[in-house]
Amino acid sequence: MDKETVKKSIEELKKSNKRNFKQTFDLIIVLKSLNLKKPEDQIEFYHQMHYSVGKQIKICALVGPELAGQAKELFDTTIHIDDFPKYAKDKKLLKKAGAEHDFFVAQATIMPQVATTFGKILGPKGKMPNPKAGCVVPPNANLKPLVEKLKKTVRIAAKTIPMIQLAVGKEDSKEEEVIDNILTTYNDLVHRLPGGKNNIKRVLLKLTMSKPVKLE
């Protein structure tokens, strides 16, 4: 997949799909020759974009007293360990928190309580605080760099269906930024696939209300 093909596809989609709101560019990658019943063939990793995808990434902090003050200043939502019993008793509240946030950051020293209280809801959604994404932090952590990183991070996963779809920018994003997000995401995925490009069936790009166009 080359830069010029991506550029032409973006221009084509913008011209032929005018709407009265700013649409999102979605990258769709269809995979092949993977047996997703085998854990070694399942895909799951965190990719950091160079540029914003135009979507607000909402982050929730699960903390003890050591990080509570800092977290309240930086995160969309902060849940103190003292409030965990309230969430444990109220499944609606728990589900609401799980649905509203893209990432959960947890203080390492309270991870057992996090797992007990939030695990059943966040686990199936793939949203449990993940050390690989830097989301399990020590009680003396500086949280600002982590927040800035997570605002440009996406979870890429193909565990049951051989397809990945994710936002890579908005219609009014700078064209070169959308191109960069597409190419870096694609290259990162290829690098992680067991068969590299041989595991890619096709690559498509679409706007929210458009039909997809083929990139590869």
CATH fold type of the largest domain: Ribulose 1,5 Bisphosphate Carboxylase/Oxygenase
CATH level-4 homologous superfamily of the largest domain: Ribosomal protein L1/L10, rRNA-binding domain
Using the alpha-carbon principal axes, give the shape: globular
Number of domains as seen in the coordinates: 2
Mean pLDDT: 96
Instruction: Provide the gyration radius in Å.
Output: 19 Å
Structural class: alpha/beta
Q: Judging by the overall fold, what is the CATH architecture of the largest domain?
A: 2-Layer Sandwich
**CATH top level assignment of the largest domain:** Alpha Beta
Count of extended strands: 10
Q: Report strand %.
A: 25-35%
Describe the structure using short key phrases.
216 residues; alpha/beta; Ribulose 1,5 Bisphosphate Carboxylase/Oxygenase; Rossmann fold; 2 domains; four-stranded antiparallel β-sheet; four-stranded parallel β-sheet; 10 strands; 25% strand; globular
Description:
The protein has 216 residues and is of the alpha/beta class. The protein has two domains: 3-54 and 152-214, Ribulose 1,5 Bisphosphate Carboxylase/Oxygenase, CATH 3.30.190.20; 59-150, Rossmann fold. 37% of the residues lie in helices and 25% in strands. The chain has seven helices and ten strands. It has helices spanning 3-16, 65-74, 84-89, 91-100, 111-125, 144-150, 175-192; strands at 24-31, 43-48, 59-63, 77-80, 103-107, 136-137, 153-158, 163-170, 200-207, 213-214. The strands form three sheets. A four-stranded antiparallel beta sheet has the order 8-1-9-10, with helices on one face. Strands 4-3-5-6 form a four-stranded parallel beta sheet, with helices on one face. A hairpin with a 5-residue loop joins strand 9 (200-207) and strand 10. The longest helix is centred in the C-terminal third of the chain and has 18 residues, at 175-192. The chain is globular. The termini are close together. The model has no long low-confidence stretch (mean pLDDT 96).
